[in-house]
Amino acid sequence: MLRILLAVLLLVVILLVLVVLAVALYVSFRYQPATNEADTPIPEPAPDVQGFTIYFIDVGQGDSTLIVDRSGASLLVDAGRSQQRIRDRLRGLGVKDLDAVAMTHPDADHIGGLPEVLELYPIERIYLNGGASDTQTFGELTAGIAAEAATVTTVARGDVIPLGGLQVQVLHPGALSDDSNEDSMVLLVSCGGVSLLLTGDAEAPSERAMLAAGVLRDVDVLKVGHHGSRTSTSPEFLVTVRPEVGVISAGVDNSYGHPHPEVVARLEAAKVQLWATDTTGADNTVTLTSDCRRYQFQPAAGQ
Ligand SMILES: [Zn+2]
Predict the structure, then answer these.
(1) For 190, what's the count of Cα atoms within 13 Å in the CB-facing half-sphere?
(2) Nearest C-alpha neighbor of 128 from the set 187, 185, 198
(3) Looking at residue 37, what is its pLDDT?
(4) Which CATH fold topology does 52-298 show?
């Protein structure tokens, strides 16, 4: 009898132990972390090979922006009005080679210097916004483009311009409106966490069109539209783009009153730090350098 009781007791104990083991196993399995992050070594970040420099070139009353990727790939967006001035500036920057040029729109203060640039450098790619003009300046540019052995592309919203490790997206125009300024090519340049918006002479209706198309976003740097004219940089545009820094390309004491005090006040109220390309008689080219994580501006002499 005692033997039977002992056997039953042993069986109960064994069963209990088994149940406890099963529960312990279940609990430990159930509450294991989803991934064993603590045990997986975090890979070293890739060697930092990204970076770029942007020169907001002092071309007086006009516009010219040179973008150079760390790989050496380069894009000149517009070339100001004066052939001599862009030649001097590019030589002053030590530019020996230029891969591509872009014309935001065919106004003389943006394309006047472009025929000289085509003369100076063997350009591989030319990007146009599709706008045309019956001016002599545009005629000279058209002849210069015809003489250049370059691939000529008319771009529109959604297109991408290859430039080394940089992303250059075309945000505007969607479709041409036949208004020269409003058809300005707008470019979003980005690399890693750093982004810039170059808006040419696009005005408030273009800004609204880009807002409606949902292509605008928070950027670090804005080249202020239309040389700081009151017709650009609308409050609703600024609220979306939220730049930390604004660069204004306008001639010192220009007859257009650029930049307009209203726009400057709006930018200052939004805590946008401002740089200007033409503040003295000297070369006031503004330089931005970036490693695609941070960026910094270098003041030109006299700023
Ligand atoms: Zn202009």
Answers:
(1) 14
(2) 185
(3) 47
(4) Metallo-beta-lactamase; Chain A (3.60.15)
Domain boundaries, the chain: 52-298
Q: Dig out the tokens for 227 from the structure.
A: 């040389």
Mean pLDDT, the chain cut into blocks of 10 residues (303 residues total): 69 65 53 48 59 95 96 97 96 96 97 97 98 96 96 98 96 95 97 97 96 97 94 96 94 80 94 90 92 88 44
85 C-alpha to center of ligand 1: Å? Answer: 16
Give pLDDT, residue 303: 44
- Report the DSSP beta bridge partners of residue 132: none
> How many angstroms is it from 229 CA to the middle of ligand 1?
9
Residue (of 166, 210, 164) closest to 186 by Cα position = 210
* CA 114 – CA 137 distance, rounded (Å): 9
Tokens 């529960």 sit at which residue? 23
- Give the Å distance between the CA of 80 and the centre of ligand 1: 8
CA 258 to centroid of ligand 1, rounded, Å? 10
The Cα 303–Cα 265 span in angstroms is 20
- Separation of 201 CA from ligand 1 center, angstroms? 5
**Rg of the chain in Å (alpha carbons):** 30
Which residue has tokens 């609204």?
208
CA of 227 to the centre of ligand 1 (A): 6
- Tell me if 42 sits within 8 A of 31, measured CB to CB: no
Contact indicator for 171, 187 with CB cutoff of 8 Å: yes
DSSP state of 252: T
- Rounded to whole angstroms, the Cα distance separating 41 from 218 reads 34
**Interval between CA 170 and ligand 1 midpoint (Å):** 18
Rounded to whole angstroms, what are the CA distances from 12 to 16, 19, 210? Answer: 6, 10, 76
Q: Beta strands 160-163 and 151-154: pairing type?
A: unpaired
